[in-house]
């Protein structure tokens, strides 16, 4: 009886929260099923260099649920993290990334591309993460230096010792690292210099604000990130580039690698591969 009253009072005082929680509970059950029934798939989004040349892609997880429809990773990744379902899900992404890389290695058009995957904190900090990565690479016989792990600042800072240890081991295996959403977290620049990151990704919020408002503060931050990264010999990728204007600003500030709708939306793997191959053969013959 008390329990029922509790539920009623939640519903009475905060129907919005109630709906959100119900959706979350439902989602947890749905994610469990979805892993076994092919509801997850990957999109790939281009990354280009200054001259417009394709340099790689980021794999982005997609979930098409029969009753919920397309669910954004912004919604289901946090639920998967909380419930531990990110572990099987993260492994699924890793496996499939290796398959894509293997497939790419067979063709001249794609053989030089790198593939970035997003790794969540709980996945990275589990005890045998390094072994899982090694096993996936060995099993699919892909060259590890084409695989890039995107980690966020908060992931690294959650356990700096563990991060350093795992990153060094993975780096020794040949993997590369990108610091995702740089500038949005704790901005612990001191740590950045001590960890084997190859790349930082400027968060799309800076990219978009800087060009929209010519907001001085965002300009200064972008400039500082680019300066810092180049002094540490890291590549800088600007994410979320949507317009020519944004690209021009970023170019002016010294950024040479880009990702965003301006170059291409994230696309299903097959569609991405077909586009890349036809483009490649197009330029070859012309
Ligand atoms: P992220 O890693 O920072 O990925 C970039 C996000 O920006 C993606 O959102 C991408 O679709 C979006 N984006 C790309 N270009 C543009 C642009 O020009 N404009 C705008 N407005 N957005 C752009 P998405 O796919 O919804 O993913 C959201 C976040 O979910 C990712 O942010 C990442 O943190 C997480 N995520 C996605 N896939 C995975 C995964 O496989 N594992 C884990 N752990 N997290 C993932
Ligand atoms: Mg990312
Ligand atoms: Mg990002
Ligand atoms: Mg982001």
TrEMBL record:
This is EAL domain-containing protein. Residues 24-280 form the EAL domain.
